[in-house]
Amino acid sequence: QLQLVESGGGLVQPGGSLSLSCGASGGTLDFYAIGWVRQAPGKEREVVSCITSDGGVTNYVDSIKGRFTISRDTAKNTVYLQMNNLKAEDTAVYYCAAQFYYCSAYSRVFHYWGQGTQVTVSS
Question: Helix (H, G, I), strand (E, B), or coil: what is residue 56?
Answer without folding.
Answer: coil
